[in-house]
């Protein structure tokens, strides 16, 4: 039972960590269309902004000036939280691999392997909370930006939606949290 639970938690943690990495690296955190005819589709991300022409499918991307340049708070905070979540999830995966019962590393000392699994669960939980805070922070800021435009009657056919990268970050963080709960609470 314990080995099956460990392997399940490892698989979920691996998939969720990949989701977190993809969310951090991709560029579609916020989607907006500039007009009601859906001529262009704009995605804003943490690292660049891309516009896709819907008629011919041509996509052009503008890199942000510099990582050190002045950026909106939502981009800086989300970048920081997502990169930290990625690093913590990677560290947790490495620790979890060494703590799995099916790995022969420290096979003669099961108590240490169990502590490694618990430690991996705690690290994974911390990373998942940071990733979820970063994803939700960005989503709330997108919602507030849209609400501000509506309240000032600037809303002229422009709509903002959460991009697939934002959803991927939330799904990855939630999956890491579930894997952390499996490792810390249900391992016995």
UniProtKB/TrEMBL annotation:
Gene3D superfamilies: 1.20.140.150. It holds the Pfam family PMP22_Claudin. Keywords: Cell junction, Cell membrane, Membrane, Signal, Tight junction, Transmembrane, Transmembrane helix. GO terms for molecular function: structural molecule activity. GO terms for cellular component: bicellular tight junction; plasma membrane. It is a multi-pass membrane protein. It is found in: Cell junction, Tight junction; Cell membrane. The chain crosses the membrane at residues 118-140, 162-187. InterPro entries: Claudin (IPR006187), Claudin16 (IPR003927), Claudin_CS (IPR017974), PMP22/EMP/MP20/Claudin (IPR004031). Residues 1-28 form the signal peptide. Claudins function as major constituents of the tight junction complexes that regulate the permeability of epithelia. Belongs to the claudin family. This is Claudin. It comes from Vireo altiloquus. The gene is Cldn16_0.
């Amino acid at each position: 039972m314990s080995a099956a639970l460990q392997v399940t938690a490892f698989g979920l943690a691996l998939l969720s960590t990949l989701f977190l990495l993809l969310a951090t690296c991709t560029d579609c955190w916020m989607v907006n269309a500039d007009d009601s005819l859906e001529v262009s589709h704009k995605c804003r991300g943490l690292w660049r902004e891309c516009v896709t022409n819907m008629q011919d499918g041509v996509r052009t991307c503008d890199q942000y000036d510099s990582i050190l340049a002045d950026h909106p708070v939502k981009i800086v905070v989300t970048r920081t939280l997502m990169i930290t979540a990625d690093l913590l999830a990677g560290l947790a995966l490495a620790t979890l691999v060494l703590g799995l019962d099916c790995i022969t590393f420290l096979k003669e000392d099961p108590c240490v392997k169990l502590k490694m699994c618990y430690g991996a669960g705690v690290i994974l939980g911390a990373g998942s909370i940071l990733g979820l805070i970063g994803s939700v922070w960005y989503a709330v800021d997108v919602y507030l930006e849209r609400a501000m435009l509506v309240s000032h009657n600037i809303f002229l056919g422009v709509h903002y939606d959460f991009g697939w990268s934002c959803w991927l970050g939330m799904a990855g963080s939630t999956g890491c949290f579930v894997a952390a709960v499996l490792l810390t609470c249900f391992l016995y």
